[in-house]
Amino acid sequence: MFINYIAALLICIGIYTVLAKENLLKKIIGFSIFSNGIHLLLISIGYRVSGVAPIITDIKTTGLSLFVDPLPQAFVLTSIVIDLSITALAVAIIIQVHKKYKTISAKKLDNLRG
Asked: What rounded mean pLDDT belongs to the chain?
């Protein structure tokens, strides 16, 4: 499916940004792009062509239709909340690092260790 290629592209862009960039804010943005790619991949796993919601209203028609898997959607919703908390914590840490060291470059912070 085409959506899997988009998810793989987002994952690759996120990994590249986290590994290649020096700026800590760019690393956080890369982490967000990476996690959104993972979310998109998980949602696409649960997708069914012409699938219906897994709500049984009539017993006669439920055997003929394919249901969309709700489990990946629940996992992604939980993961979005966790990613939001991690991002907020990382930004708060970067703000404190900038106040103390006047830089947000990972290489300059590494040189400060002595």
From this structure: 87
**Non-local CB neighbours of 10 within 8 Å, separated by 6+ positions:** 33, 34, 36, 37, 40
CA-CA distance, 63 to 58, in Å (whole number)? Answer: 10
DSSP symbol at 105: B
pTM exceeding the 0.70 threshold for the entire prediction: yes
Residue 62 has pLDDT above 60, yes or no: no
Contact criterion met (CB below 8 Å) for 37 and 7:
yes
